[in-house]
């Protein structure tokens, strides 16, 4: 009955190392960055008879929740209205520090001819002061873990409800899917 339990230091160290490795793997699992369109600014209108083209700046809040910084290449975001390509926004190559947020200013061009093809729907949306716009982008880059660069591809689909009169963002839904290549 008075037998003392013998403490096994080897088992304790192995258990602590296993728990630490499991925690490190769970923290290192890549998480999808988040994107939120904060505002839209009209910079210019260009008359291309018989329609107007618009130049805009899209202000997008980007959050990198990962424990490593990322570097991404330049790309184009497609902007659609009622299933038709309306325009595009340019994303310049850049980087994002680990666990940080930054505001991106994306120059965009909206083609009035595409909008004119949906004139009836557009006029109704202006009357309701709600216009649903879809955007999609594929972003490729690298994330550096220690001395290895891991390539990734991020696909983002956004559905944005905008006031077409004042260009206010009313609502948005963003879905992203990231693929990491380990090689």
TrEMBL record:
It is a single-pass membrane protein. GO terms for biological process: defense response to other organism; response to desiccation. The keyword Membrane applies. InterPro entries: LEA_2 (IPR004864), NDR1-like (IPR044839), WHy-dom (IPR013990). It is found in: Membrane. Pfam families: LEA_2. GO terms for cellular component: membrane. The keyword Transport does not apply. SUPFAM superfamilies: LEA14-like (SSF117070). It comes from the Eukaryota. This is Water stress and hypersensitive response domain-containing protein. It comes from Davidia involucrata.
């Amino acid at each position: 009955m008075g037998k003392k339990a013998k403490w096994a230091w080897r088992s304790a160290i192995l258990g602590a190392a296993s728990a630490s490795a499991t925690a490190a793997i769970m923290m290192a699992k890549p998480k999808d960055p988040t994107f939120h369109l904060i505002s839209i600014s009209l910079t210019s209108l260009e008359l291309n008879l018989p329609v107007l083209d618009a130049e805009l700046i899209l202000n997008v809040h980007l959050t990198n929740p990962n424990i490593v910084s990322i570097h991404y290449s330049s790309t184009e975001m497609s902007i659609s209205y009622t299933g038709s390509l309306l325009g595009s926004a340019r994303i310049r190559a850049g980087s994002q520090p680990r666990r940080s947020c930054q505001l991106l200013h994306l120059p965009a061009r909206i083609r009035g001819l595409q909008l004119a093809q949906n004139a009836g729907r557009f006029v109704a949306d202006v009357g309701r002061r709600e216009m649903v716009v879809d955007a999609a982008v594929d972003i490729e880059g690298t994330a550096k873990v220690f001395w290895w660069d891991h390539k990734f591809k991020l696909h983002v689909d956004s559905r944005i409800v905008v006031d077409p009169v004042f260009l206010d963002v009313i609502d948005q839904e963003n879905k992203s899917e990231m693929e990491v290549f380990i090689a």
